[in-house]
């Protein structure tokens, strides 16, 4: 049986973590005998989209033989190109599945019914979807997606650095991400604990106990993740995760959770995030409703509690580094759609 993973992505070596999740799916599924098709599509202008739809995509699929299964890493960030792409994929493959990285109707196009109609049609044109978690699956089902769906659980993470085994508890925390959209960091003021932050676009100055540590590539960053916890938060406020990206946490699996866990670092996550249930069930950290008393949150965690979280995190880090979650999800969607 010939199986393909088709990925439209930027495979640059910069510090942007954006392509990392798709690159890891390619890597882990190639271990299970999947062939990988990479294609970079330039969709910045209308002319670029027309070129992709009527030249690049047809020529790409004319060069490949037919296959039994195609797993497409969704989305391409151009709905026009996506419509043309799915027609070509259908002609070449007996079965077509999407591995969902983002549902744009939940992310950038919230409450846009016209956009959702188009995205829903794409989902229902497949034989099945691998979605992030139960919250995302429920929303899709309630809003008209009828094809079979399998929950990934959490994104795997190919981490080249050694797992941090240190279990001493000193009330330290880190945050990694695009700091320009993480304005809540400007409001954190710590006296009894310490936070180190990594990423692009830092503020000129942070309050007491918070220090900027620079920007590193997704492969180099784990070397610096030696703090007790990794923080998963979004938006401008300390008492909630707000805005489009904050609300998106109610449905998605933030990739930075996998970065932290695969490095051996338990997490502190927003209580209303979709992944909070996964973290609490597996005792991989704590879920909180507010960061207004971050000192107090860290103060209330005992060394024994932290030691248990650390032990569980090291265990799951080994699974994430093997790609166990995507491999199991692919196997399950294949079985239930036979």
Automatic annotation (TrEMBL):
For this protein, the record's InterPro entries field holds: Gtf3_C, Gtf3_N
Chain ranges of the Glucosyltransferase 3-like N-terminal domain? 12-154
The GO terms this record gives for MF are:
transferase activity
Q: Which residues form the Glucosyltransferase 3-like C-terminal domain?
A: 173-332
User: Which SUPFAM superfamilies does this one have?
Assistant: UDP-Glycosyltransferase/glycogen phosphorylase (SSF53756)
| Listed Gene3D superfamilies | Glycogen Phosphorylase B (3.40.50.2000)
Key words of the record: Transferase
Q: What is this protein called?
A: Sugar transferase
The species this protein belongs to is: Limosilactobacillus avistercoris
